[in-house]
What does this fold into?
Amino acid sequence: MHFTRCSHERYYAWDYRVLKTFARHYSTGEVIPEKLVESMRGAKKMFAATELQRQIFYALIDQTFFGEQPSSPMDTISVVADLRRRHTSWKHVEGTHWHTRFNHLLNYGAGYYSYLYAKCFAATIWEKICEDDPLSLATGSSLRTRFLQHGGAKDPTFLLNDVVGDGILRYRDGGIVPDITSLCREMDLLQG
It folds into this structure.
């Protein structure tokens, strides 16, 4: 799992309660207006579903190229075109082969999906632990000691369950699957 991408910290950069403690106009010193932050958050959400679809598409390409291999060589251009047609709303443009320049496909070896897992984990950590009071010393200390300080020394599933509790992930077919509820709420795909 690409655990370093589980960056719940990015949420702090979008929270007005945090921003107002340091975000000031360079010449006037005026604190960033709350309405501006809300507008920026709205703009960020505008294409969130499209971005999610793109990340799923990348993960599908990676899984297809580097997952279980067929016995015969594959035409990667045809594979990408077929995946695009079946799983996205974008049309394939003949003669293009952008995936040959997408270096993440070379580095992850069927692990690109971990970006999506990390987004789910980060959304859950923010919603369940940090969102109520992102400036809480107790919350920050707990995250540091129960989650961040271990680096790669402990199993990520143990760390996630320890910091958030049961429900952040479930086991399926010998692997783990993240709870997508918090990410879906963040994207306004779920109410409540």
